[in-house]
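User: quick one, sequence for these C-alpha cells?
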C-alpha cells in the first residue's frame, strides 16, 4: 500500500498596506491619463464639429449659385423665417429654412446643426416659447451665422439694414471672414452662475448704435473645443481658432470673441460705416 503525502502550500494574500499602495498607484495613473483621455475625446468632437461646418459651407456655396452670388439671409421679418427654419406654434419647421433646399437635414439631437460638444440638454432652447417645457421640437442650432456682416438688411438687428448685402465677390479678405462658428449665449450678468442658451447668430464684439460702435457685453462665440471655436470662413475652409489676445466676457461658459475688434473676422469694413445710422462721416 502506497501512501502519498501532500504538503499544503501556504498562499500569501495582499496586506492592507500593499492594497493601499496598489490603489494609490492606480489613482496616480488615472490622474495622469484622464486629461489625455479628455483631450483625445474633445479632439474627436472638434473634428466632427468642423465636418459639420464644412457641410453647411457646401450648402452656402449652392445658395450662391441660385441667388446671384449672395449670401443667405439670417432672418426674413415678413415671413418670420430664419436661416435654420421657421418658428411655429407647434415647433420649428426646418423645411422653411434658407439652408434646407441645399442640405435637407433635420433639426434634431445629434444632428448636423448640433456641435457634439454642446449637445441637447446642455443649454436652454433659444426658440422655445416662455413657459413651455423642453422638447426637441424647439431645437435650432449651436452654430451661429454672421448675418451682421453678410446680410445686414436681412437680420433681426436694428440700425444695420442700410449696410450692403454681401456677395461672394464683395467680401473683404474672405480667408479671414467668419461665416459660421460655434456659438452660445450666456444671460448671466454677475458671472457667478452661467445661464446659457443656444444662439444661431454670430454676434461681433462691437455693435452698431445710433451713436456709433459700442462694446457688445453679450457676444456669442463659444470656445468649447479645448479653448478654441470651430469656424467656417468665407472662402469655405474650416479650422479651430482661439481668443487671439482677447479675454472671455463670460469665462465659466467660455464665451467671448476672436480678437479685440470687429476686423478682420466679424465685420471687416466696420471703419467704413457711417458715424451713426442717420449720418455719414
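Assistant:
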Amino acid at each position: 500500500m502506497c501512501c502519498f503525502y501532500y504538503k499544503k502550500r501556504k498562499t500569501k494574500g495582499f496586506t492592507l498596506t500593499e492594497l493601499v499602495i496598489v490603489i494609490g498607484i492606480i489613482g496616480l495613473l488615472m490622474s495622469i491619463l484622464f486629461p489625455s483621455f479628455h483631450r483625445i475625446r474633445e479632439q474627436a468632437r472638434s473634428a466632427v464639429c468642423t465636418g459639420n461646418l464644412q457641410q453647411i459651407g457646401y450648402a452656402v456655396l449652392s445658395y450662391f449659385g441660385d441667388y446671384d452670388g449672395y449670401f443667405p439671409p439670417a432672418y426674413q421679418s415678413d415671413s418670420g423665417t430664419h436661416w435654420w427654419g421657421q418658428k411655429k406654434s407647434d415647433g420649428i419647421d426646418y423645411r422653411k429654412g434658407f439652408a434646407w433646399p441645399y442640405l435637407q437635414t433635420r433639426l434634431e439631437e445629434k444632428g448636423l446643426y448640433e456641435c457634439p460638444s454642446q449637445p441637447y440638454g446642455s443649454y436652454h432652447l433659444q426658440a422655445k416659447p416662455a413657459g413651455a417645457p423642453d422638447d426637441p421640437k424647439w431645437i435650432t442650432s449651436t452654430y451661429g451665422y454672421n448675418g451682421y456682416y453678410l446680410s445686414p438688411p436681412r437680420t433681426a438687428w436694428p440700425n444695420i439694414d442700410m449696410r450692403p448685402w454681401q456677395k461672394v465677390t464683395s467680401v473683404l479678405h474672405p480667408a479671414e471672414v467668419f461665416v459660421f462658428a460655434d456659438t452660445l449665449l450666456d444671460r448671466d450678468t454677475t458671472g457667478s452662475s452661467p445661464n446659457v442658451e443656444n444662439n444661431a447668430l454670430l454676434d461681433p464684439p462691437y455693435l452698431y448704435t445710433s451713436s456709433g460702435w459700442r462694446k457688445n457685453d453679450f457676444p456669442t462665440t463659444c470656445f468649447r473645443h479645448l479653448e478654441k471655436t470651430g469656424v467656417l470662413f468665407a472662402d469655405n475652409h474650416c479650422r479651430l481658432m482661439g481668443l487671439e489676445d482677447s479675454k472671455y466676457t463670460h469665462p465659466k461658459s467660455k464665451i467671448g470673441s476672436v480678437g479685440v475688434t470687429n476686423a478682420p473676422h466679424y465685420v471687416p469694413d466696420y471703419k467704413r460705416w457711417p458715424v451713426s445710422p442717420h449720418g455719414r462721416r
